């Protein structure tokens, strides 16, 4: 299926990005995106497949790429068919004169049909001659055939144009306000003032118990965000460090804070598959005792907080770790989802994972591995599932990030960036630069429903990235957040009605209040602006 497909419409701002993606294995490949881009009429060459330093006797297709430009964003896609294995994780990589980009896209290919790989890259230095090649990630000998390949470059300006195009069409909407008297006569020249009072798009951050009683922190948070997630305070090791002794005091107080300011909250998390973050007493349980403890955990947490949290991360990072399935069997995770859904039927239950959009080098969490796991759970009867992408970046690869979200969007499930930050290893200035790239990419992708930062503030700093110092003075990442918050809202608008008694504008989705004055008459009203392709019409009588 092709969500929000954009064909290669060439204009003054270059091609429109093509969101097409496929996750089913097809008898025949589809046509190449962008008619092939710079690979049009460029057949692949065949290179000897190498394992370690040894030629295998097999050959793998590759492309010779000339004169790749520094600063361009390259979107790559191809169809792949394999022989010699039932399935294989095929990785595309890029070798230039200066370095090897280990992974620019992956696909879990199946024998005898065509699978779609979508990815991309950005160079950190120009290249006169590069080699784009494919290999089986587990280094086994298989035959790889490719077809309908495409490589489309975008300049930074063209990429930003595409982002803004999607923001204008997906995050904003046209409004026409009609002003008339009580008899229905149009009123020309009526003065109108419009203010956005809340935003439709959830944009928030993690908070910790450090926000309790800290009025400057609370004020700073409420001025910016409409969504929150508790960093650690709902995790099992925090609420029940000793068996049978549950303590929800901190979580209760944090929930009072967000509820008191009309902030929505994600529930993070019910279980964490990493044994390192599982309570010590739980690690010592087996069989029926562990099953009993698990059931008690779900019942205790979900009955206490029923309908309080919009989401629950049910089994955190289960592509990388499998503590519970090792001990309780392969259906343990499905049982978690079933029980959580029965306990809180209106909460969206998420699969939350790292290294899905951040990179494709992690074989445990490739986009197709994620999709396969979701489908397994769906076949088992999982309800109201959502896609959680942690988004802990070092240096973002934006074409890859977008391509991965394109493929995930074929599932037609809610997609959230759930724990966005940039590694402290790059320094504070680059944290700001890279954060802006990631946030613009997330907000402009039509399939992303919300963004959460992982920036809970502690006396000694934050997990990886802080927005401010301890005195709430912005760091570079905080400057970026404040700039984008302002850019992504409709500021106060003033105007007068035209000869038709109307006033029109484009506004970001959300809630608005409008004040109208005409002579000695005045009226106030409010209206909602939800997503739609149609113009919103709103009438006011004076």
TrEMBL record:
Domain GH10: 188-484
Transmembrane annotation, as ranges: none
Entries under InterPro entries matching the protein: Galactose-bd-like_sf (IPR008979), GH (IPR017853), GH10 (IPR044846), GH10_dom (IPR001000)
Keywords carried by this UniProt record: Carbohydrate metabolism, Glycosidase, Hydrolase, Polysaccharide degradation, Xylan degradation
GO molecular function terms attached to this record: endo-1,4-beta-xylanase activity
Gene3D superfamilies according to UniProt: Galactose-binding domain-like, Glycosidases
A biological process term (GO) from this entry: xylan catabolic process
Family: Belongs to the glycosyl hydrolase 10 (cellulase F) family.
Record protein name field: Endo-1,4-beta-xylanase A
């Amino acid at each position: 299926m092709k969500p929000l497909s954009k064909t290669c419409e060439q204009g003054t701002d270059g091609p429109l990005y093509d969101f097409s993606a496929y996750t089913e294995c097809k008898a025949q490949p589809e046509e190449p995106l962008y008619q092939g881009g710079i690979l049009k009429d460029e057949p692949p060459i065949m290179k000897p497949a190498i394992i370690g330093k040894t030629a295998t006797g097999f050959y793998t297709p590759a492309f010779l790429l000339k004169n790749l430009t520094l600063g361009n964003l390259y979107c790559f896609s191809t169809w792949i068919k394999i022989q010699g294995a039932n399935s294989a994780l095929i990785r595309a990589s890029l070798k230039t004169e200066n370095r090897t980009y280990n992974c620019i896209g992956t696909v879990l290919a199946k024998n005898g049909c065509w699978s779609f790989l979508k990815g991309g890259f950005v160079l950190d230095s120009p290249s006169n001659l590069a080699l784009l090649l494919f290999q089986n990630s587990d280094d086994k000998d298989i035959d790889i055939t490719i077809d309908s390949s495409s490589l489309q470059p975008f300049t930074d300006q063209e990429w930003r144009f595409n982002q803004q195009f999607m923001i204008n069409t997906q995050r904003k909407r046209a409004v026409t306000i009609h002003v008339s008297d009580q008899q229905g006569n149009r009123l020309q020249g009526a003065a109108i003032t419009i203010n956005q009072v809340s935003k439709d798009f959830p944009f928030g951050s993690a908070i910790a118990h450090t926000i309790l009683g800290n009025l400057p922190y609370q004020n700073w948070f409420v001025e910016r965000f409409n969504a929150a997630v508790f960093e650690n305070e709902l995790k099992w090791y925090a609420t029940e460090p000793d068996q049978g002794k549950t303590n929800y005091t901190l979580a209760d107080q944090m929930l009072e804070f967000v509820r008191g300011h009309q902030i929505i909250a994600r529930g993070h998390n019910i279980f964490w598959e990493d044994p390192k973050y599982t309570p010590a007493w739980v690690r010592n349980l087996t069989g029926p005792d562990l099953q009993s403890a698990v059931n008690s955990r779900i019942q205790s947490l979900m009955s206490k907080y029923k309908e309080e949290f919009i989401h629950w991360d049910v089994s955190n990072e289960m592509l990388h770790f499998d503590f519970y399935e090792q001990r309780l069997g392969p259906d343990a995770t499905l049982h978690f989802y079933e029980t959580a859904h029965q306990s809180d039927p209106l909460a969206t239950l998420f699969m939350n994972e790292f290294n899905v959009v951040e990179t494709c080098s992690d074989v445990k969490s490739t986009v197709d591995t994620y999709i396969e796991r979701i489908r397994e759970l769906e076949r088992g009867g999982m309800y109201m599932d959502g896609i959680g992408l942690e988004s802990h970046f070092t240096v973002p690869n934006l074409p890859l990030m977008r391509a991965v979200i394109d493929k995930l969007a074929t599932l037609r499930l809610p997609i959230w960036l759930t724990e966005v930050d940039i590694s402290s290893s790059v320094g504070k200035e680059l944290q700001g630069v890279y954060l802006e790239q990631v946030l613009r990419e997330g907000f402009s992708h039509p399939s992303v429903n919300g963004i959460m930062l992982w920036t809970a503030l502690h006396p000694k700093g934050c997990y990886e990235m802080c927005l401010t110092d301890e005195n709430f003075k912005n760091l570079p990442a905080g400057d970026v957040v404040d700039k984008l918050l302002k850019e992504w809202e409709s500021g106060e608008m003033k105007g007068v009605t035209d000869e038709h008694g109307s006033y029109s504008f484009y506004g970001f989705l959300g809630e608005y209040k409008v004040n109208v004055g005409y002579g000695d008459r005045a009226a106030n009203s409010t209206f909602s602006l939800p997503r739609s392709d149609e113009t919103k019409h709103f009438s006011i009588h004076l």
